[in-house]
C-alpha cells in the first residue's frame, strides 16, 4: 500500500478523479460529492481515528496562553491587531504581553484542518459565521489587511509560525507535538480552559452520543457533532478522520486487500502502539459496529 499525505481536499479530489483506490479525509465528504461518486459505484466512508486541531503561537517566553472562541475569531478576522489587546490581556492578566502586531498563519491549500477550525469558529462566533463562514478554503480577512500568511499543509503552517515571531496559526495536534510548540488553552463549553491531550480528546468523544451513519451513507455525518462538546474536561476542537473506499473493485484481490486493511485499522490499528502521537482511537462500540457494516 502506497500512501501520500496531501490534505483532505487533495485526497477527496484524487478519489473523485479515480487516481487512487482509497482516500482519507478529516471532514466527511459532502452530499454533492457523494452523489457524484455514486454514478460510478457505491462509496463507503467511516471514521478511523480521532484528532484535534490546536492553536500554536510564537511568543518568546510566553507559555500557558489562554483564549476564548470569540477572542480567537477576532484575531483571525483581524479585528484584534496587537498581542497586548485588552481582550487578550483580560484572559491572561498574569502574563506580560508584548505590544507587537499579530501575524496570522493559515492554510493555503484545500484543507480538512481548515474546515474543522472554521466550523468551530462559526459555532463560537456569530461574527465569524456571518463574515467568513466555514470551508476547506475560506477568504481570510487578515490577508486583505496584510497580516495573513498562507502555509501549504500542516507542516507549512508549523514552519511559518516557527519562522515568524509574534505569529499564531492552527495545526493538527500531532504537528504541534512534533515541533514542540506551545498550545493555547481554549475555553470550552463548560467555561474551563483546556489544552488538547489524550484525556481531553477522549472526554469530548465520550460526551457526544456519536451518531455515525452506516458507511453506505457516510455523507450524512455531522462534522459539528464533536466540536465544542459539553463536559468540564472536553477539548473544543475535536473531529474524526475518515477513510473512503469503494464497496466493489473490479480487481477482486485489490478489493480483499483494501477491506482487510480497513478491518485492520478498526482492530489492531486502534491499539495505542499503532497510533501516532496526537491522535486517539475510536470508542470500542463504534469500531465493532463499523466492522460488522463493512
Explain this structure.
The two termini are 19 Å apart. The protein has 294 residues and is of the alpha/beta class. The model has no long low-confidence stretch (mean pLDDT 95). It folds into two domains: 8-50 and 211-221 and 239-293, D-Maltodextrin-Binding Protein, domain 2; 53-198, D-Maltodextrin-Binding Protein, domain 2 (3-Layer(aba) Sandwich), CATH 3.40.190.10. It is built from twelve helices and nine strands.
How is the biggest beta sheet arranged?
6 strands, mixed
Q: Please state roughly what percent of the residues sit in beta strands, choosing from under 5%, 5-15%, 15-25%, 25-35%, 35-45% or over 45%.
A: 15-25%
Q: Radius of gyration in whole Å, from Cα?
A: 19 Å
Could you give the order of strands across the largest sheet? 1-9-2-6-4-5
Order of helices and strands: HEHEEHHEHHHEHEHEEHEHH
CATH class of the largest domain: Alpha Beta
Total count of domains: 2
CATH architecture of the largest domain: 3-Layer(aba) Sandwich
Helix content estimate? 25-40%
The geometry reads as globular
CATH superfamily of the largest domain: Periplasmic binding protein-like II
Tell me the structural class: alpha/beta
Mean pLDDT: 95
Instruction: Give me the CATH fold name of the largest domain.
Output: D-Maltodextrin-Binding Protein, domain 2
Number of strands: 9
Low-pLDDT windows of residues? none
* N- to C-terminal distance: 19 Å
Q: Please give the count of helices.
A: 12
Amino acid at each position: 500500500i502506497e500512501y501520500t499525505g496531501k490534505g483532505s481536499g487533495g485526497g477527496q479530489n484524487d478519489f473523485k478523479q479515480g487516481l487512487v483506490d482509497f482516500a482519507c479525509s478529516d471532514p466527511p465528504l459532502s452530499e454533492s460529492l457523494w452523489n457524484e461518486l455514486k454514478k460510478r459505484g457505491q462509496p463507503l466512508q467511516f471514521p478511523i481515528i480521532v484528532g484535534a486541531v490546536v492553536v500554536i503561537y510564537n511568543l518568546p517566553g510566553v507559555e500557558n496562553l489562554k483564549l476564548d472562541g470569540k477572542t480567537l475569531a477576532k484575531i483571525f478576522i483581524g479585528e484584534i491587531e496587537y498581542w497586548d489587546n485588552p481582550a487578550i490581556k483580560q484572559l491572561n492578566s498574569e502574563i506580560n504581553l508584548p505590544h507587537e502586531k499579530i501575524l496570522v498563519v493559515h492554510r493555503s491549500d484545500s484543507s480538512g484542518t481548515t474546515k474543522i477550525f472554521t466550523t468551530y469558529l462559526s459555532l463560537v462566533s456569530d461574527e465569524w459565521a456571518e463574515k467568513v463562514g466555514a470551508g476547506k478554503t475560506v477568504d481570510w480577512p487578515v490577508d486583505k489587511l496584510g497580516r495573513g500568511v498562507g502555509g501549504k499543509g500542516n507542516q507549512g503552517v508549523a514552519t511559518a509560525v516557527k519562522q515568524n515571531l509574534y505569529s499564531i496559526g492552527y495545526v493538527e495536534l500531532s504537528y504541534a507535538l512534533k515541533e514542540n510548540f506551545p498550545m493555547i488553552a481554549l475555553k470550552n463549553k463548560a467555561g474551563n480552559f483546556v489544552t488538547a491531550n489524550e484525556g481531553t480528546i477522549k472526554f469530548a468523544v465520550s460526551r457526544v452520543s456519536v451518531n455515525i451513519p452506516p458507511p453506505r451513507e457516510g455523507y450524512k455525518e455531522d462534522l459539528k457533532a464533536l466540536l465544542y462538546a459539553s463536559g468540564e474536561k472536553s477539548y473544543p476542537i475535536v473531529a474524526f478522520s475518515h477513510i473512503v473506499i469503494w464497496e466493489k473493485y473490479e480487481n477482486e484481490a485489490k478489493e480483499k486487500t483494501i477491506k482487510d486493511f480497513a478491518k485492520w485499522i478498526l482492530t489492531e490499528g486502534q491499539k495505542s502502539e499503532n497510533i501516532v502521537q496526537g491522535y486517539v482511537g475510536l470508542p470500542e462500540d463504534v469500531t465493532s459496529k463499523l466492522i460488522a457494516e463493512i
